[in-house]
């Protein structure tokens, strides 16, 4: 599809930040917002309700009951997409094999096969394997498929192009005037599950606090227990502006996740001037350039790495500078430029 005029774009995402904590939803919201600002007519089809203040269109494909993600994909078969120039799916398009729009783009936001290796519980492992099979089918259905990090190609080697997630560095940027006057470690994720918030809190209390008694661990998570222990502050869910401020205040950002397909919070922290401590999951290794712009360490050593980094002003400054250079690869503007080229079929 050639030409430079505005496009009519339908974006499929089961998740949106109105009710979901999934990173895919936040990325879709950012992408749809920037595309709309550029003059395109964008509609997001989602099980989640509209995001307050969103500038793009929204179509609520509401699901109830069990197996909602699988049933959401079936429900999309009944949606008339003939009025759109582009369908951009971030999931759930694996039943849409009949051509419905001139251009069908699919983003594989990580690999469910990879996540199945680390997730706990037979039921969840089975669900992830089934979703992985749906990703294989989706990559065949679409006209053009991209992955968000190179390691994802391990599971889908026929997918050639890597197109990362984008971060709005106009909002996420360093502000030394907001830097906290005492050591602050910031975490964004979940207390339970693969984000390892509970394990981070344990190591913070056992290893970091004895060496930095005035340190705090700020947790942007909605599932933190009522009493998470000494030094831990549960911030719950923050607004966009509050999240930016938290990154700017933090001395260090830590997300010791078992698995990340990309890891948007790593980029947001790096863009905000907060050095990163991460575990060697695929997303963290990609975003931090193989660990060259962050401290990447095994899960059991996260507390020690944090304590050492909080004590080393020079190292934090060096890492922050290197990270700011690295995030130029992940600006929202450059990512949307590349998607526009995919939509028009010029790449």
From TrEMBL:
It comes from the Bacteria. One of its GO terms (molecular function) is glycosyltransferase activity. Residues 23-168 form the Glycosyltransferase subfamily 4-like N-terminal domain. Keywords: Glycosyltransferase, Transferase. InterPro entries: Glyco_trans_4-like_N (IPR028098). This is Glycosyltransferase involved in cell wall biosynthesis.
């Amino acid at each position: 599809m050639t030409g430079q005029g505005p496009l009519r774009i339908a974006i499929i995402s089961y998740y949106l930040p109105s009710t979901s904590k999934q990173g895919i939803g936040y990325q879709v919201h950012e992408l749809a917002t920037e595309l709309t600002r550029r003059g395109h007519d964008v509609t997001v089809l989602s099980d989640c309700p509209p995001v307050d203040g969103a500038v793009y269109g929204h179509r609520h494909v509401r699901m109830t009951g069990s197996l909602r993600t699988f049933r959401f994909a079936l429900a999309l078969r009944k949606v008339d997409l003939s009025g759109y120039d582009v369908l951009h799916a971030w999931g759930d398009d694996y039943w849409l094999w009949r051509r419905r729009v001139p251009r069908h783009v699919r983003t594989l936001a990580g690999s469910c096969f990879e996540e199945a290796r680390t997730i706990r519980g037979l039921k969840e492992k089975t669900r992830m394997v089934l979703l992985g099979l749906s990703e294989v089918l989706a990559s065949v259905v679409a006209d053009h498929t991209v992955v968000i990090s190179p390691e994802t190609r391990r599971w889908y080697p026929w997918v050639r192009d890597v197109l990362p997630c984008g971060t709005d560095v106009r909002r996420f940027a360093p502000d030394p005037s907001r830097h906290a006057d005492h050591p602050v470690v910031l975490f964004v994720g979940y207390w339970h599950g693969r984000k390892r918030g509970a394990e981070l809190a344990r190591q913070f209390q056992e290893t970091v606090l004895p060496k930095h008694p005035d340190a705090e661990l700020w947790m942007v998570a909605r599932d933190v227990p009522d009493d998470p222990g000494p030094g831990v502050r549960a911030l719950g869910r923050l607004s966009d502006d509050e999240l930016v401020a938290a990154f700017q205040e933090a001395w260090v950002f830590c997300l010791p996740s078992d698995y990340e397909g990309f890891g948007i919070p790593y980029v947001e922290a790096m863009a905000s001037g907060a050095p990163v401590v991460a575990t060697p999951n695929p997303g963290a290794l990609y975003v931090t350039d193989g660990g060259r712009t962050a401290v990447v360490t095994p899960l059991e050593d996260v507390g020690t790495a944090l304590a050492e980094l909080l004590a080393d002003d020079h190292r934090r400054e060096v890492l922050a500078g290197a990270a700011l250079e690295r995030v130029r690869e992940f600006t929202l503007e450059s990512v949307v430029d590349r998607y526009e080229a995919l939509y028009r079929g010029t790449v």
